[in-house]
């Protein structure tokens, strides 16, 4: 997956998008002391120099984490600063106080996805202590997607690459997968909230193929042998104690494996969308943590 991000990053070509107040998406890597490369994506809007949005670290990885970002854009000096200030969700099992938050300062010439975002960052724990440092290199996601589509077309037209390898090397499909926030077997997505109740919605986001599940909330079966369809099933989940646990158990894989169910969690501030990817008998979980 890291090699995929390196390849995508160097495929960037000019493309004009971007207006004030449009959400801008940038994707690339965090480089930590030349020893590690971690995928990284930010999405934000800017108003009067103030930047607000979110970041995602380790996309599609076992420690995928989405955090709030805030910062400043200085058009005269072509500079961008932002810092992560709290977690929206994470697949990592460690507690929130142990997370290392990115504090970035670098260059951005204009607010459009033709530009690269490059610069140094300092990692800080929530108590202000320094953890790690390194560099960030990001390109406009729109450019990356178009470059991937062009590369896929070249591969499809090539007579030197077998059909099997063409199906294996699909950059556009890989980018789509990264955007899905998939919960795999045994994984738990930890979502942070300040609310006492959150809304859970489940449905089949693709072709209905008879996927059946058990939905278990705090150890109690809420939906048993439930067939997931395109019709959205909404359930209110109370978070009266410190946390609420939600488990999805795959009863079958329908007519097309694996068992995939779209799950959406909504509270007064956030909207988190995820997707299960399970074989028969496997489980995946969501934990709602009351901050």
Name the descriptors.
Immunoglobulin-like; 291 residues; Lipocalin; mainly beta; single chain; 5-stranded mixed beta sheet
Could you describe the 3D structure shown?
- The chain has 291 residues and is mainly beta.
- The protein folds into 2 domains: 2-142, Lipocalin, CATH 2.40.128; 181-290, Sandwich (Immunoglobulin-like).
- The protein is 13% helix and 48% strand.
- It has 4 helices and 18 strands.
- It has helices at residues 2-9, 141-157, 163-168, 171-178, and strands at 24-32, 36-47, 50-57, 65-74, 79-90, 101-107, 117-124, 130-140, 182-184, 188-193, 197-203, 212-217, 220-227, 233-238, 243-250, 262-266, 271-277, 283-290.
- The strands form 2 sheets. An 8-stranded antiparallel beta barrel has the order 1-2-3-4-5-6-7-8.
- Strand 4 (65-74) and strand 5 (79-90) form a beta hairpin.
- Residues 4-20 have low confidence and may be disordered.
Number of domains: 2
Mean pLDDT metric? 84
> What share of residues are in beta strands?
over 45%
Q: If you consult CATH, what is the topology of the largest domain?
A: Lipocalin
**Rg from C-alpha positions?**
20 Å
Q: How far is the first residue's CA from the last residue's CA?
A: 32 Å
Strand order of the largest sheet: 1-2-3-4-5-6-7-8
Give the low-pLDDT segments.
4-20
- The CATH architecture of the largest domain would be Beta Barrel
Share in helix: 10-25%
Q: Would you list the SSEs in sequence order as H and E?
A: HEEEEEEEEHHHEEEEEEEEEE
Report the sheet with the most strands, covering strand number, pairing sense and barrel closure: 8 strands, antiparallel, barrel
Structural class: mainly beta
Q: Class of the largest domain in CATH? A: Mainly Beta
């Amino acid at each position: 997956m890291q090699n995929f991000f390196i390849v995508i990053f160097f495929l960037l070509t000019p493309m004009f998008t971007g207006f004030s107040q449009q959400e801008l998406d940038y994707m690339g890597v965090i480089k930590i002391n030349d020893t590690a490369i971690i995928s990284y994506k930010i999405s934000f809007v800017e108003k009067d120099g103030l930047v607000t949005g979110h970041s995602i670290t380790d996309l599609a990885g076992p420690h995928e984490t989405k955090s709030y970002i805030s910062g400043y854009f200085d058009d005269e000096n072509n500079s961008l600063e932002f810092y992560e200030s709290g977690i929206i969700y994470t697949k990592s099992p460690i507690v929130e106080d142990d997370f290392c938050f990115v504090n970035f300062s670098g260059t951005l010439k204009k607010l459009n996805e033709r530009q690269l975002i490059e610069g140094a960052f300092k990692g800080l724990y929530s108590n202000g202590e320094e953890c790690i440092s390194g560099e960030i290199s990001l390109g406009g996601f729109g450019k990356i997607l178009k470059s991937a589509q062009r590369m896929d077309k070249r591969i499809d037209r090539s007579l030197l690459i077998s059909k099997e390898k063409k199906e294996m090397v699909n950059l556009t499909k890989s980018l789509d997968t990264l955007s899905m926030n998939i919960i795999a077997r045994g994984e738990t997505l930890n979502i942070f909230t300040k609310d006492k109740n959150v809304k859970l919605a489940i449905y089949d986001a693709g072709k209905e193929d008879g996927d059946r599940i058990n939905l278990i909330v705090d150890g109690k079966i809420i939906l048993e042998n439930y067939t997931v369809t395109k019709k959205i099933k909404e359930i209110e989940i109370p978070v009266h104690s410190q946390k609420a646990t939600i488990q999805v158990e795959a009863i079958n894989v329908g007519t097309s494996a694996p068992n995939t169910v779209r799950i959406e969690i909504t509270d007064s501030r956030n909207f988190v969308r995820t997707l299960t990817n399970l074989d028969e008998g496997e489980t995946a979980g969501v934990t709602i943590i009351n901050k």
